[in-house]
Amino acid sequence: MSQHDHGAQPVILPPQEAWGVIKSLLNPVTYLKFAKEHPILSLIFLVGVVVTVNRFLIGGLAGTTNLDDNNPWGIWISFDLLCGVALAAGGYTTTAGALIFNIKGLRTAVKPAILTAFLGYAFVVYALLYDVGQPWRLPYPVFWSQGTSSVLFEVGLCVMLYVTVLMIEWLPNFTDWVGMQKISHVIHKCTIALTIMGIVLSTMHQSSLGMLYLIAPHKMHPLWYSAHLPLQFFVSSMVAGMSMVIFEGTISHHYMHSRMSPEYNRDHDGVLFAFAKACSIILFGYFFMKWVPIAGENKWGYIFDGKYGLMWLIEMFGFIAIPCFLYAVGYRSRSTGTIKAAATISVLGIVFNRFNVSWFGFNIHLRPEQQYFPSVQEVIVSVFVVTLIILCFRFISKYMAIFSDHPSYSKGHH
Amino acid sequence: MKRRNFLGLAGAATATALAGKAQAAGGHSFDGYPNSYGVLFDASRCIGCRQCEMGCNKINSENVTEPWTTLPKKDPKAFDEKGLNATARTDASMYTLVNKYEPQALGGKTPVFKKAQCMHCKEPACASACFVKAFTKTPEGAVTYNGSVCVGCRYCMVACPWDVPTYEFNKLIPYVQKCHMCHPHIKSGKTTMPACVKACPMEALTWGKREDLIKEAWARISSVPGRYLPHVYGEREMGGTNWMYISNVPFAQIGLREDLGKTPAPEMTSGALGLVPLVACLWPVLLGGIWQITKWKDERAEEDKQKAVAEAIAQERAKAGK
Amino acid sequence: MVKRVSRSRWGRVFCLTLTLSLAAALLGAFSAGEGGQAKAQQPQMVLSGTAIGGKPGQGPLSKAVFNHQKHEAAVGNCESCHHTGSMDACSSCHTSQGSPEGGNIQLSEAMHSAQAKASCVGCHYQETKKKQCAGCHQFIAAGPKEGSCVACHKDPKAPAPAAAKPAQPEVVTIGSISKDYQACEFNHSSHVEMLQDYAKGALAKGFHTQPDTLCQGCHHHTPAGVTPPKCGTCHGKAFQKEDPRRPGLMAAYHIQCNQCHKAMGVDSPKATDCKTCHAPKK
What we know:
The complex is a heterotrimer. By secondary structure, chain A is mainly alpha-helical. Chain A has 17 helices and no strands.
């Protein structure tokens, strides 16, 4: 981190030492050392473990969450699942841009995006283990009793397949590191097939997450309920994915600078501008897409009606129109600062939208005292999961060639 | 009706049901199982004695095998009419509950009671939402739950328009709990009709074939015009339910939503779900094509570049040669 | 067309509602005779009845007899019936075939509509909603019943029906579940006396034409003058295929007692107070 030399290649450990690092993960001393260096992260981790024990062994769902019979889904679905999946969409948007549309400047963004997506999805699944009543049965819908009429079945199947695809896409980073280049080589040959599979699966489950709510029109506020929910979820996931790549790239560049090769540093702004342009256009389309059901189903009256109307307007203008405009301005004036601000607002906007659909605008028929609000422990688990993602991201990008090409490729292709 | 009779009918219903299922899968309309049974609740008759709740607890807490059909035994004294109110709802310890309302339609002081339990939809939202097929719409009319496959995602609870399924949040191995219209008990011969119906001293609950119940409901409505509202709740709501209500006060005033519409829940997602295979087929072809085009374009550009360079070199050489 | 039938010294005019054809018929000697009779019982008026099958009063029913004085006293304001504020005859707008002035409502509808407030039947139906009547009448649909036509369309010359007095038990012991509880002692006579007390007004008397009409509230389907069978004769098991509308015996009792008490505002014993009727066995 002290190093700010744009010209230096990051150090990648030779395979022999890589195994040593992996072995050190089994040694508690490693963790104690880490805890000494990062007390806050360690505290979050510790509290997370305590809540985890409470969730699975002591209190159960009732002892950890504010969920009840009227509010079966809480923040673990609203944030960990819906936001998690949307914000991990960077994987398919970046690979589509770089590998299918062959946009040259995006090449350096692919590996970080795949890593983020892989970790994002892996921890979505991990967070689901907390939420479902009998987590050990999570494979049932795919392998045991298939409820094919269910939207959730489609989501589950796609997410399971996509995690696998992402894992395979990510695997070369690991196999290169530990010196199993042969495996990497085989995987690289399947890149395009994997990318296309990833896009297909993402299209399906990103939209299916919106489709989940189609079955409950009578519980949702009309401003958010619409037959277009699947489309809206899919389109907004593209923005979410790209904004997240920008957002997370900015943070990485701040903290992981020493791990980045000159090419990665050089191309970083190019990625920003390419995504800024794309996001601006998509947000523009998304903005009008959101009006279609309002006009088509004549829901104008709700827009200026009470707090829900206000929230909808904030979402539409504050979190869609404004970032759309900022992205356009940032792209035209080549201002990375504006683009980063737009990305941050977009990410928050996606979170706000998913919360509106699944939490704030959901179950509005209940009396105020029946409405859901997450418990402290639920929030802790969500923070814990995000912390785990960050820790894994740090570890992997610290040792593996995420922001650079692995030395083994330097002589040959690429 | 004798048990053998009922089972015979059930068998016949299964045969017709298979035909019906094939139809439903084909995206055509499914008119529900013929000869399925149901219950008609008459709000003008219910006196709020809670005998139904007691009967339900008794049959479902004694000699039951599966944990997801077992309720904790309750002291009969717990069913005190003083405990009645308009806001309570069923939870994992009960399949049914009587609510007491004081509707505006009767001046706001006269109590009217309503029994809440699973509506046993003809096309259940829970069954279509369940990703492990834990719910079954039986040809006999009941919507039953099989906990042995339940993962506990609780999407059924999200999907149900009447907030019927409940969850054992306080257990480490939790299940959904939901009224099964005494389907297992009728099948095993333990009873001839749902225990709540049997327990009702007022026949505020009537047991019979759904079609007969609709006729009976309309007969009651028309026999003394003005005594009931001309609406059989559940005849068409959410595509129709096997548990139906008639009332002398507006249904909205006894906690039954009148804004649910007539569309069966499965229809709300089937259209969108039908597009999924389209994406799976169209996307790879489209993306593969785009990839090929961009690759070809890049190769062409590279070729052109090399050609131009080669030409330039050749020209230079030619010049130099001259 | 209005035919003035009665005159008062003060110039008060009572109008007779008649259709055009009926008015013409009333000019005949027969109607003059009737008018004379009416005059003797001032201000009672005779309205001609149906024209079914030909001349007024010669159909299957006699003309309806309407006691204006009594009704005026009971209702208290004229607008209840004279809903337009005009004292013209009903038939001036509500003609026999209906006319635009009368909203195309025929005279017979104007008299017999159960839903209208100003019609004879409609007004009387509202009366049955009073607490002391509602116990029985809640189960009786609005509108003229077959047997109740003669209450209005009665032949003044016809002899009054013989007052049959069916035997009444003092106490009825209901012991269907006496295995588990003490038999229920139903005080039959006090219920009958109570109802008779409620129904002693002129209105109730006028319409409860048979001496045992009152009994029909509970002993439905039992023809007048016949000793009713036990409830259990018809009411057995619930939800029988032959007649799903017929409640089982348990419900038959509970519906009969509870619904009646509820409609009549009898709060004691409460509907959910089991022990008052089903005392535990000693």
